[in-house]
Every structure is written in structure tokens, then in C-alpha cells.
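Feature request, filed as a ticket because there's no other form

It would be nice if the structure record came with a short human-readable summary line next to the C-alpha cells. Right now we just get the raw output. Example of a typical job, pasted below so the devs can see what we mean:
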Amino acid sequence: MVPSTLSTPPAADNLEAGLASWRQTVEVGLRGVPFEKKLVTRTVEGIALQPVYTRADLAGVPHLNAQPGAAPFGRGVRNFGYKEASWEFCQEITALDAAGFNVALRADLMCGQNSVAITPDLAARAGCDPDEAPEGSVGAGGLSLADGRDIAAALDAVDLTAVPVHLRAGADALPLAALYLALAGQRGVAIKTLSGSLTADPLGAWMETGGLLASLASHYDSLAGWTIWAKSHAPRLRTIGVDATLWSEAGGSATQELAFGLAAGVEYLRELQNRGTAPAIAAARCRFSFAIGPQFFTEIAKFRAFRLLWSRVVSAFGAKVEASAKSAVHARTGRGNKTVYDPQVNLLRVTTEALSAVLGGCDSLHIGPYDEVAGASGDFSRRIARNVHTLLAEEFHFTATADPAGGSWYVEKLTDELARKAWTLFQEIEQVGGLAAALRRGIPQQLVAATAAEKGRAVDQRRAGLVGTNLFPNLKAEPLVVNTADPSFPSVRAAAIKARRGPAPRKSCAASWSGRFQAALAAAARGATVGQLARLGRDLAAQVEQAIQPLAPKHAAAGFEDLRRAADAFARHTGARPRVFLAKIGPVKQHKPRADFSAGFFTVGGFEVLSGEAFATAETAANAAVASGASVVALCSTDETHPALVPVFAREVKAVRPGLVVVLAGLPADPAVVEQYRVAGVDEFIHVRANVRALLAGLLKRIGTRI
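Raw output as currently delivered:
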């Protein structure tokens, strides 16, 4: 933090006295509600966010005097931030085949994108040809790449020296590295001029699928060989990938994403050191990927905290932090909080998420198109996503200031708290033998599953909001059409590759990884496939790695989207949405708060809310409810008036229409009263602590909707 020369900070005792006076004033306004309950927000990371931060909160925060570009890099790795060069606009492209990928890529590069991101499908990342790949892996999770013809088509007319190319190679880099570098050779491009990354991430592949076709040890051997080879021959390519997005997408917290990402990085440094690769070399060739969640300031702090933690790790390995801890950090907007209904809200979500990553100092960034959640993106949505990059850089001028968030009491304190909690969790993983050992025991998976369940409950109860889905839905808006892959694609691809695949190349007798890779390069230039190249580098007699519990991505809106689909189907079948009648009794002051709450409660489930006049008596309200034709009626009044109204209203409704579902807006504190109301005919109670999703699902089933 740069000390101010314009003013002198007030004395500590004055600040303390001012804070005490402020709190006293606030507590008077709270009228007996505890300060901690009302104004302190507790996050899933276990951090208590305060309503006010001052310089006093920075006592004991160790990184404050570092300048931007200086170790431990909490303020970023560049002296002048993005002023000299912006972050990479590293947009992913959703395409199954190379030709479609290339069409989109060339269009995007002409319109602002300045790097290339290639994520091959699960088959290619596993080193399998389409006709030999596990079921469901061809075209899953990325672009189908099987040989040099595919990668040449994907990168047709792309100047490999002009833009960085980032290629995720899976557990073993050899097959896809051979194809990519062979393409460069065929185009006369010097390998030393290639920039970007071609990363292997065996731990990430293991976590994503739950299995590996070779042992972790053999993959570490290959990773060490690839890293050393690239240091001499392709010095501008990062070789070691750490995909921490898997933890976030599975529902993990920011501290879990940090801690487990850090643990993966440490595992690679340690294993490569055991194979003769110095930690300084390995650390400098790492590329970490993080997902960006919806909590704006937490995400800024997460990226800053990672730099602090990674600098500490690099130092612990005896490497010079200034030279080796500037590992590349890639950010991508998270998938888990994006919605199929009211999808334009996703535009707002990705904008704030992208800004978090920029203020956190990312090196490259993917901003998801608003329709990415549906499985495919069009030209318009990709253009809008690219334009968010441009707005942040060119119109909002976040490139003009080095570390705009630096010095913020809130951000600096939150960064420190996240770093400390992530380090504690990281140490717990180290105590059981490192990340691989912990994964075999299922420890990180269980921790993330517990956090995901907690997040899920918050969404179900609407303590965590998804605007347009579990809050403020627009029932007239059309949802995105979820893209379903052509079921014939895997078989067509398998037949095509099988037809053009040549004889298997002769296995190299070379003992070194470098020797085997040179043979693979030659074979790739002659047309060898991914599967053939993988067999060149793989010990076929080696055992496969022990299976683990994979990380399954979570979709926060899934439960509410199921409700909406069920209600939409009901409307198509019957000609009308499921309806709920609000029986508002008494003057406006008496019924309005719970009527408004009820309307919001039911519309998120796709119900049409019938809310007209208010009624003076329970009998007239019951008669109107019966005549409305609705399947559900909700009585809206107050706790004080309910004892007189509820028995009469429920009795009158059930006498005429026994199957009509009666709901009370409010939950009595006394269980005996709840039971009394149930006996009278009340079927359900809606209230602020209710599991909204589960309750609405039950109501939809009760009125005959399939869900």
C-alpha cells in the first residue's frame, strides 16, 4: 500500500471511539435485533463479513507494503497492471468438429479475441481414438481431435506466431503436443516462437473422470519429460496445468478451490523434483485455472490470495519467488450459477464475474456467452461476451490503473482471511500425504460435497438468489433451448478415423522421454492418430490408476428449472398454467406483506397467481377461492387474525372442493397451533424458512403435474 502524503490518519484511539459511537447508534436503530445477526454476513468459507471496515482491520495483514509487480504478488505480477498489455481475451468455442471450430475461431479473432483456447473432448484428452474411446467420451466436453488433419483444420489460417494458443492436453501431453508441434513444423513455424500453453494435468483428468488409463507415477514421468523438453525447445509454452475450476463447479467454496488448487500445484512440484526437475523450473511453467463465482469481492480476494499462497509455496521449495512464482492464472466465468430461464440475466452475471477476475489480476480470461449454459453459443452471444472484455479494458478503463483494488480495507482484509483459511485447509491435505492420497480417501470430495449441499439448501430456501429463477421470474420469457449433441456423431467420427488411420507407428526403443517424443513427432507428421501416439509414449504393461470418486459439476438452478419445465408442460397439456388464488383478508396493511410474499413464492414454480380484491370475511374469501378454478389457494393475513380466520376459511373451502389445496402464508411458532390448522384443513404452510423448491415440487405433484 502506498502511504498517503496528503493527510495524516487519525489516532487509533479516535478511530476506536468513533467506531464505538457508530455501533451504539446502529444498535439503537436495530431495536433489539442483535448486531451480529442483522449486519454481519457469514459466508460458506467461514468468514464473517463486517458492515464496515477501517484501517484498524489491517493490523497483522503482512502483504500491504508490496508494490504491484513485486513479491509476494498479492497486487499482481505486473508493475503497471494492465497498462502495458491487457489480459488475454481467451474465449472458448463450443464446437464438436474442427471445421466448425475454425469458422467460429476465425470470426472471433477478427473481432477482438487475441488468443486461442482449445479444449479437446474427453476421448482425445484420454489419448483414445474415437473408435476406441470409452462410451460417451467422443464429443464430450470439447472438440473432437484425433489426428493432424483435425488440428490443422481447427487452426486453419491462424498465424501460430501471432496469438497465444492454449491447449488442454489431459493427463499426458505427448499425443496432442506431438500433433500441435508437428503442425507448426509443417507450416515452417519455429517451435521456440510458439506462445501460450500446452498443459498436462493428470490430477485434473483423474478428478474429472474418476480414472486414468495409466498410473499417476507414469503420468508424472511424462509431465517431467514434457516440461524439461519444452524448457529447451518451446520456452514460451506453459506445460503444467492445474484445473482448480473443477472444485468450484462441483460446488466448492473459494477456500476449497484455493487450497486444493494449491495442493495440486505442490504435488506437481514435489513429483517433478523427485524426477530431476527443479521446482524453480516447474513453478515457472505452471498455468492455474480458476472459476469465477458470483460473490464479487470474495472473488477479487481469491485471485489475490492465490498469488500470496503460491509465492509462499515456491519459497518453501527453495526457489526464487521473483523469478518463479509468476505462474499464469487463467479465469473463466463459472457455469454453475447460470440459468436457462431468463438467460439475459447471465449477461449481468458474467460482467461482474469478469470484473472480479480483472481486479484480481488474472492473465487470461474466458467470459461465458449468456447461452453457454444451454450447451452451444451463437454468433451474437459470443460477440456480446467478447465485448465485455472490450468494455472493461477500453471503455471502463480498468487497464489505466495498476491494482485498482489495492489499499481497500475490505479487499485487503478479505484477501488475508481467505489466504489464511485456504492455507489451513491445504496443510490438512498435506498431513494426509498430499492431494493424491487425499483423493484416494475421498477427503476433498466429501468436503466439497458438504459445501455444495449447503449452497443447494441456500438456493432452495432462497437465501441465495438467482434472479429470474428463484427470485423475480418472468413467466412470459422463453427459456433457452438446451442443445443436444447429434447422437450419430460418435459413430460417424469413429468410422471416419478408422477409415483414414494408417498402420501403427513403430514403437521407439528410446529410454528417455525426449527420445520417445521425437519419435512421436515424426509419427504425427506422417498422420498418426491420438491413440497411436498415446501408445508410443505409454507403457502398455503398466497398471491403470486406482479409481476415485470423480467431481460432478453442479447446476444451482436445476431444481427450480425442473419446476418451471413441469409447469410449462402442464400449461401445454391443459391450456393454462397451474394457478394459485390469493385469499387476501382484511385491509391492505393486514394482507399485503404476505400476499406479496406469496406471489413471489409461487411464481418461481411457474404458477399463475390470481390476486384481485381483498375480502372482509373468511366466508367470502372461501367462496371466491372455490369459484376461481385455481388448484391451490393461499390465505394471506396476519398471525394475530389467523386463529379466527383459518378454521372457517379451510372448512368452507374443503366442504365444497375437498381436493383444493389450502396453503397458509405463515408458520405458527407453536406446533400445537400448526396441528390445529392442519386438522382444520390447511395442507401446507409457506414461510421464509421453507424449502421453497421442495414445497413447490410437492404442490405441483399434488395437482397432477409430472416433475
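Something like this underneath would help us a lot:
The first helix runs from residue 12 to 30.
Residues 311 and 321 are 6 Å apart (CA to CA).
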